């Protein structure tokens, strides 16, 4: 009987093993084809398991193609864009998968739990298709570049930049190898010509801030316009306005909320709206720069965005002199009716406000907020010759202009015990400090933070 059971078990294992085709058991290698294998667990994929397996197989096929891309191509692309090798190969895989065609479904296999699919792509046919795409895109890029040259000659800098960017987008997949094409009887490297045209035109542009230094307050709504003018040096040396230029604004020092993009008007004027400054850093900087990625037709790839970002262009620099919102701190800490020589709560409360970007001021007049701290330790009773003290403390924060209470908390009956009542009171302060720092102040910060 035991021998029969062992025989049946062995037969079952053999059936499971030999029921799988060879390409499932071991990935095939074929010098003529790129291979893509996809597998999904049916329980995870649901009714769409076949489509998910196909998607995985095509992604696997694209990954195999990307591995064949030379290190020299990757290095040159990295030099132009600043992206890492991993990012570049990821972009190549995505681009390859989007353009896959003429692949063949070779086989599929499934059991109760899994579904497998096998695709392949003829390497020679893939290379022919790639060359056809390259030629088509190169011709389109050449046409866009030539139109850009015409627009630039006519003084329309924004349109010229847009055409150059769209030309670069056409040949983006070939940045690492260059694109040679014939123009007017001679060979040119189109990728170099297009990037050179962008850099040359940007070199004639300058964004000038209307007010390079501004004062602003952190932690409140601002609605401050960072105004600038985009000008271009003409062939006669005169400054000409650049209209329709997309401009992006961003903090390069400090943090806050600023409208990221705008376009210049007919006079070359534009502005980004600074809505808020979040931190109390005394000097913060916002730059307004030509936003070349906005000139691309459609959503630009990461590779194109980073390549454009590396191309230089004149920026308007806004230096913000930041002050905190004024808060007046009215603090009183007593022990047995006497003022505490070394306040326990006032300093951490002040530090909490400073950390939120507020400026603690000496006078109540003009303060946006008023924080009132009251803490007192009193004698509660005696116990076997020892003094028992109890401490109560409250914090309230009010908006000065509206008179509304923004925050309130209290600590009550925190005990301290020593032979001397003054020392017992100080002990009560010491015992209350962990709750003050660990509960009251974090709640205050959460309530008032930007």
Mean pLDDT: 87
Number of domains: 4
What is the assigned CATH homologous superfamily of the largest domain? Putative neuraminyllactose-binding hemagglutinin homolog like domain
What about the largest sheet?
6 strands, mixed
Please state the second-level CATH architecture of the largest domain.
Answer: 2-Layer Sandwich
Q: Can you tell me the overall shape?
A: flat
Unreliable segments of 5+ consecutive residues: 1-17
Count every helix, treating DSSP H or I runs of 4 or more residues as helices. 12
Beta percentage is: 25-35%
- Give the N-terminus to C-terminus distance in angstroms: 77 Å
Q: And the CATH topology of the largest domain?
A: Double Stranded RNA Binding Domain
Q: How many strand elements?
A: 21
Helix and strand composition category: alpha+beta
Explain what you see.
It is a single chain. The chain is α+β, with helices and mostly antiparallel strands and 450 residues long. It folds into 4 domains: 22-126, Endonuclease I-creI (Roll); 142-204, no CATH class; 205-323, Immunoglobulin-like, CATH 2.60.40; 325-448, Double Stranded RNA Binding Domain (2-Layer Sandwich). Helix content is 39%, strand content 34%. It is built from 12 helices and 21 strands. Helix 4 crosses helix 6, helix 7 packs antiparallel against helix 8 and helix 7 (123-153) packs parallel to helix 9 (190-203). The protein is flat and about 100 Å long.
């Amino acid at each position: 009987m035991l021998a029969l059971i062992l025989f049946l078990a062995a037969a079952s294992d053999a059936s499971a093993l030999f029921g799988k085709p060879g390409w499932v058991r071991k990935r095939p290698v074929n010098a003529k084809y790129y291979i893509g294998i996809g597998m999904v667990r049916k329980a995870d994929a649901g009714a769409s398991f076949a489509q998910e397996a196909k998607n995985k197989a095509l992604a696997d096929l694209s990954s195999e193609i990307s591995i064949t891309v030379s290190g020299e191509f990757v290095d040159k692309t990295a030099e132009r864009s600043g992206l890492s090798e991993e990012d570049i190969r990821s972009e190549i895989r995505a681009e390859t998968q989007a353009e896959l065609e003429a692949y063949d479904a070779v086989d599929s296999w499934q059991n109760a739990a899994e579904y497998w699919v096998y695709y392949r792509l003829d390497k020679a046919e893939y290379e022919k298709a790639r060359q056809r795409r390259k030629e088509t895109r190169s011709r389109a890029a050449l046409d866009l570049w030539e139109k850009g040259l015409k627009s630039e000659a006519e003084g329309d800098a924004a349109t010229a930049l847009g055409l150059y960017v769209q030309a670069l987008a056409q040949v983006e997949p070939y940045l690492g190898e260059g694109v040679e094409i014939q123009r007017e009887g001679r060979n040119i490297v189109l990728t170099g010509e297009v990037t050179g045209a962008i850099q040359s035109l940007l070199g004639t542009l300058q964004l000038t801030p209307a007010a390079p230094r501004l004062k602003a307050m952190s932690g409140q709504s601002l609605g401050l316009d960072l105004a600038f003018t985009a000008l271009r040096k003409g062939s006669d040396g005169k400054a000409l306005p650049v209209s329709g230029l997309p401009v992006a604004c961003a903090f390069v020092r400090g943090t806050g909320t600023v409208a990221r993009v705008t376009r210049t008007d007919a006079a070359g004027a534009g502005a980004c709206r600074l809505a808020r400054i979040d931190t109390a850093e005394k000097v913060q900087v916002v730059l307004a720069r030509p936003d070349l990625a906005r000139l691309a037709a459609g959503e630009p790839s990461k590779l194109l965005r980073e390549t454009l970002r590396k191309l230089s262009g004149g920026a308007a620099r806004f230096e913000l002199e930041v002050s905190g919102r004024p808060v007046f701190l009215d603090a009183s800490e007593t022990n047995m009716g006497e003022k505490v020589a070394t306040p326990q709560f006032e300093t951490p409360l002040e530090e909490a406000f400073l950390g939120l970007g507020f400026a603690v001021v000496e006078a109540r007049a003009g303060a946006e907020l008023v924080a009132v701290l009251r803490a007192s330790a009193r004698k509660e009773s005696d116990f076997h010759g020892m003094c028992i003290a109890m401490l109560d403390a409250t914090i309230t924060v009010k908006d000065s202009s509206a008179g509304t209470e923004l925050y309130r908390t209290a600590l009550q009956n925190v005990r301290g015990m020593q032979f001397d009542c003054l020392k017992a009171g100080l002990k009560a302060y010491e015992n209350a400090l962990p709750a003050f720092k660990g509960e009251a102040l974090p709640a205050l910060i959460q309530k008032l933070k930007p």
